[in-house]
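Try this one yourself first.
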């Protein structure tokens, strides 16, 4: 996900309607023909389309200004003006469009193939052929087209995944994602290796799970510290969470309340999501004892241990993930 962008501001404009035409029928044997001015064309609309092949908003951030085409003016012989071309803005599933002035969401686009008309183009004006009456058989006026509308919008991406991985930096989230799924995130032995969200597909038989890995959360993330805050929105839609805890660290027990506090501070809805506490790096010396201490300290939670190196616990975790996401057979 190089060039990952999950938030941007754009300006969109619908097209103006074309003016109606003032025209009179003029033929060789009809020197005083009646009005035959055609209507103006409709202005183009601003349309958001959802495409599952897109994973970021970088393409619309680069363009930023989107304008639909104007409708063409009507012509004589009751000829209708050409309609303006719609401007289509392709976005990935999970895109939310906001009014930047109020912060209110205007539309939440989640399903692939969805088309949503945000701004309709202006209506074309009527030609003078519409205004002929018994007392005014030669009207010399036509209706103006209605102008299009321009709006500024804030566009956010909320990744759609079944399971979200959360943990402190270097807790092994990216490593676990790489061994469970087809994702190939950047992995290294230092904090904040993950700087953008990663998605992976876990396929078990005919069942698929989407797993999301976000940058590590540190204490104070909800106040803007570290990298995790700006990406917490990507786990809001997850059905369940995995708290990844480094069993190689002496203070792994203290990680759970830190993660719970930061998630709840960011969004109260995250507090009640189903979760599993997963101790990572189970192959390290002393890790089994710390895992036992973790289970004892948090009896209300399901606690599991895994090792990406030895693959211990991975089959059991896979089954637990299917149950957590409601996909178990």
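Now uncover the answer:
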């Amino acid at each position: 996900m190089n060039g990952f962008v999950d938030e941007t501001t754009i300006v969109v404009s619908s097209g103006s309607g074309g003016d109606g035409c003032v025209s009179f029928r003029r033929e060789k044997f009809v020197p005083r023909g009646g009005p035959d001015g055609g209507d103006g064309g409709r202005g183009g609309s601003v349309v958001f389309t959802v495409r599952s092949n897109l994973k970021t908003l970088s393409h619309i951030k680069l363009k930023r200004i989107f304008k639909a085409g104007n409708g063409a003016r009507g012509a004589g012989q009751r000829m209708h003006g050409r309609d303006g071309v719609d401007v289509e803005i392709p976005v990935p599933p999970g895109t939310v469009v906001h009014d930047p002035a109020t912060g209110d969401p205007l539309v939440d686009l989640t399903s692939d193939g969805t088309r949503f008309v945000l701004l309709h183009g202006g209506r074309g004006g009527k030609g003078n052929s519409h205004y002929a009456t018994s007392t005014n058989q030669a009207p010399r006026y036509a209706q103006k087209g209605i102008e299009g509308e321009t709006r500024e919008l804030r566009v956010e991406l909320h990744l759609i995944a079944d399971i979200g991985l959360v943990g402190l930096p270097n807790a092994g989230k990216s490593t676990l994602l790489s061994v469970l799924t087809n994702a190939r995130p950047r992995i290294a032995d230092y904090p904040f290796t993950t700087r953008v969200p990663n998605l992976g597909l876990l396929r078990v038989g005919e069942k698929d799970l989407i797993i999301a890995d976000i940058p590590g959360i540190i204490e104070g993330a909800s106040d803007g510290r570290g990298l995790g805050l700006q990406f917490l929105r990507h786990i809001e839609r997850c059905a369940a969470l995995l708290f990844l805890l480094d069993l190689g660290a002496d203070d792994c027990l203290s990680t759970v309340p830190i993660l719970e506090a930061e998630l709840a501070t960011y969004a109260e809805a995250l507090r009640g999501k189903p979760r599993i506490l997963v101790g990572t790096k189970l192959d390290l010396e002393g890790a089994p004892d710390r895992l036992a201490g973790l289970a004892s300290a948090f009896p209300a939670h399901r606690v599991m241990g895994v090792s990406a190196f030895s693959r211990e616990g991975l089959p059991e975790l896979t089954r637990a993930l299917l149950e957590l996401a409601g996909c178990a057979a």
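Discussion: The chain is about 15% helix and 25% strand. The chain has two domains: 1-158, 163-324.
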